[in-house]
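**User:** You know discrete backbone vocabularies at least as well as I do. Would you mind producing a protein record, from residues through to fold? Write it directly below this note and I will take it from there.

**Assistant:**
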Amino acid sequence: MLKQITKNYYKAFSMLLCAMLCLASGIAQETARKGVVRDAVTSSELAGVTVAVRGTSNSTQTDASGAFSISASRGQVLVFTFVGYEPHTFTIGQSTNLDVNLQPSDNVLEELVVVGYGSQRRSDITGSVASVPKERLSKLPVTNVMQAIQGAVSNVNITQASSIPGDNPSTQVRGLNSMSANASPYIVVDGIPLSRTDGSINDINPNDIESVEILKDPSAVAIYGVNGSNGVILITTKRGASGTPQIRYSGYAGVEEPSHMLDPVSPEELLARYAEYARITNTSLFNGGPVRNEYEWDNYQNGVTTDWLDAVMQTGTIQNHNVGLSGGSENAKYYVSVDYFGQKGIVKGFDYKRYSFRTNTDFNPTTYLTVGTSAFIAAHNRDGGRANLTQALAMSPYARMYEDDGTLTRWPMYSEQLWENPLLHTTTDPERREFNMSLNGYAEMNFGNIWEPLSGLKYRFNGGYSYVPKRTNEYQGLSVYNANGWGRIHNAESQTYTVENILTYEKSFGLHRFDFTGLYAARSKYWQQSEAIGEVFPNDVLEWGNLGTASTQKVTSSADLYRSVSQMARLNYGYDSRYMLTFTVRRDGASVFGPNNKYGVFPSAAAAWNIHNESFMANTKDIIDNLKLRVSYGVSGNEAITPYQTRSLMDSNPLGMGGLSSAALRYRHRMGNDDLRWEKTAGFNTGVDFGLWGNRLSGTIEFYKTNTQDMLILQRLPRLTGFADVWSNLGKVENTGIDVTLNSRNIVKDDFSWSTAVVFSHNKNRIIDIYGDGRDDLGNRWFIGHPVGVIYDYTQAGIWQEEEIAAGLHRGWDEQAEAGAVKLADLSGDGIINDDDRRILGQTAPKWTGGLTNTFTYRDFSLNIFIQTVQGAMRNNVQIGGAADELGRRSAPADLGYWTPDNKSNEWRSLSNRSNVYGYGFPKSASFTRLKDVTLSYNLPSNTASRIGVSGVTLYASGRNLYTWTSWLGWDPESRDIPRGHTQDNVGDNTNYPMVRNYVFGVNLTF
């Protein structure tokens, strides 16, 4: 017995001793350690960080949400490394969930930047390439990424003219380079063009975006040749990383309201307006007053009033839910995301939903071959009948909303038939659907892994296909007082194919380093549309479901085909990380031009000098971390026109002859031009990049000048030619400007940091020539020596007063003047108001813009405050101008005054329809400064997160368009405002929509 006990004791002791020895030697059972890696200054998640167990071959990378998972035992050391950040070590303790913050490295010049058909170290870049701050790409309630960029990048002017849910903002990079061509930048996603495929930036889910670079100068954009004259925006989406699969949920929800409410007048103020209008126009009010119309009389008698703005507006809501899955092994990586975005507009009926799905994959079947895909599907839904805000602003509070049977009244201020019920079209249910299905793939061969002497030589094939169908179905029947019924079905679709063959070779020997990129690409786009319209239906039951039942039917269709081919060669050379040269030449051919000038050649050259790497700068290392001088010159192009514009086209029309209908051909109004050639923009750029005191202060200052010539202008022709116009190469436009970007790390402590980013840009645009004869084009408002977009109008000198009219002061000056009319200045001095008194009063584009971002972090909290300013822009104020004969009828904004014999206003005109007979546009400053967004976020400590079963949690609250400082009278100086009954670029007044302010609460979870 004693022997058995001793044996068991010895066995147990041996096992205990073995366990202790194993523990002491670090051979313990490994445990999965999960965590999230963030930027210590901005708190943004970092993807692609290498996480390795020191002394082992065990390593992984963080995924698109900064999350990682790695097996390690207690006491082992994790090493975190990432380009642009200081290495970080972490000794494993008891916790299995880790939060890691990496400090930005002083050597940020080693950061890789996407430059088009490849990437470069920031220190080697010779052109102007701006990277969008990563913190702008998350935690902001935006529909598309351009809204997040707005104001945050110098000389990238993004204007949200329409806040309608789902609408795209307009974007310009370094001014307007053309007088009539498209001025939007070229957008490339994962190497495949999104622009000119009929896709939109709304197709790209902001949650899927990893980085955004903007190419601005001729050297940087030259590799895109014909597509680069307006700048290039490169978007890279997130991809998978090797390691344990990670699931991330990102979501937010919030409310929206007008950023500024344009209140109408009160019922009492409207009655005073009616009385003044009746007096000044010598017209009678209904039943002797105090209202104008029959329907108003009934409500006035009964004391019934309606707040029409309240009737058509509502509290908007916004929500977004995104689930992403990423992971993989060393040879197979994947990223998958599903996203839903929903927005209920602040004007009834303006709703928007987007559903998107993306999958990015990368596979390494062999050591020398990598293949992958970048596929996405986006579905947009803008269904629903919409209220009309312009009509609502005009409604009298005494106007009738409903008939006795509960239907909406057609003319709420009957017998006035100028203004329809603003809710009338909410009774319809049109369909507005749009889709984008894109499948892009690549295959890359690394010849160096096949044969060592070929090291550095790679071939990449990019292939892309996008299918973009759109449809609009609508019907108007008895609910909108159309007794006959009217239905319409409109379908359009485009299919775009892109093929790119890219050969790259990179080599270093001694202090010399060069890389070569060669490209051969082809693109084809087929577009078609068809439309069917029916009128006079037997009933409204089927709506557009059976247009064949209509008594009158009309069917139209059209199609076109676009094709292009391109060749490009680029050579980068660097010596000792001090001197860099870039030479690029691209040749493009497009089917839109005639047989004589289908091809264009676009060369560029750039040089850079890393002055801080010179030996004579050795004594400044404690102060100067980076000092680089850059200079570039190049030519880019713009095709600007749609297919078949260079040809004289014919239409088929029915012709009655001999009692029979025959087809007859006739020329269209546009003359062909086989000699039409590319619009070309030649530009010079010089800049300096700097970093001081350990990069506590860093930035870029650039000056540029571009000249666009051979512009594509639609030239008017004398009618005797048989044609109305022809596309011609005429005119020259110049842009000069300065870009400034400054970043400072004001305070950097263990628990607290404060950083500031400032951007400033100034652009001066002017027309050098138009038609070669030195003459202005008054009809298009094009004036030599001035910007393309100007305000050309009279100058208001005040308001004509009764005593001035009585004294005859208007005689010989303004014979049509009456008391209360706009007094215009006689600038020509000829004693009479005529066209000679009009002058250029301002420009529609801002003279300068700026942005200020302050980011504060305290432990796990982060506060980001962004202020945007736009200065020097001018617009005609539609709210003040309006239509002259509507001033006495509509419930105009309360802030809009009017002249009376008692107040003798010298600012506001009278309510007479003759108070502005010269059509003065009332131009006003559209400058503003806006508290664009404020975001407060909190990163839950890893120990707390592990208790709820997740590896990372970020909670945040964000407000957008919180306050605007401006003198503008209207909804907002940026917002589109179209007068009633007018159209602007085929957009009617029913799409006027206020700028919105929103407040959201969001969460990012990583599992």
